[in-house]
């Protein structure tokens, strides 16, 4: 019985250490953020990302609708991001990069926005830096941001 308790405690500690290592690794900013050929980059095959760009439209796991809006919407979105706990890393022209961190382990997610002024669309990409699954956190975040934006404008 005592050895079983030791095994359980050992497994819990290993799991906890794994989460700490993942949290530390998620602090490193990916080197491939930003626009690629004028669009936000596609999501990886893992289910921890959503994107509204045309290259994702046939992928129901990753696709999310863009925001219809104008320059006023774009400016309001900056405020909404801050109100939702985001930390704006870059806001230049028609591109914005914001990070969000989880409360406990401080896992970092990157949210990128691209304003297509001609089409009156704001494209979004939200992705976890580490791990395979995000339990739908990125999709929920984008939907929450959209609702907050509707209430703000």
In short:
This protein is an alpha+beta fold and 153 residues long.
Strand content: 25-35%
- What is the architecture at the second tier of CATH? 2-Layer Sandwich
CATH C-level? Alpha Beta
- Major sheet: 6 strands, antiparallel
- Gross morphology: elongated
Order of helices and strands: HEEEEHEEEEH
Radius of gyration: 18 Å
What is the arithmetic mean of pLDDT? 86
CATH topology: the name is TATA-Binding Protein
| Uncertain segments | none
Total separate domains: 1
Total helical segments: 3
Q: How would you characterize this protein structure?
A:
With 153 residues, this protein is α+β, with helices and mostly antiparallel strands. It has a single domain (2-152), classed as Alpha-D-phosphohexomutase, C-terminal domain (TATA-Binding Protein, 2-Layer Sandwich). It has three helices and eight strands; from the N terminus they run H-E-E-E-E-H-E-E-E-E-H. Helix 2 packs across helix 3 (137-152). The longest helix has 24 residues, at 2-25. The mean pLDDT is 86.
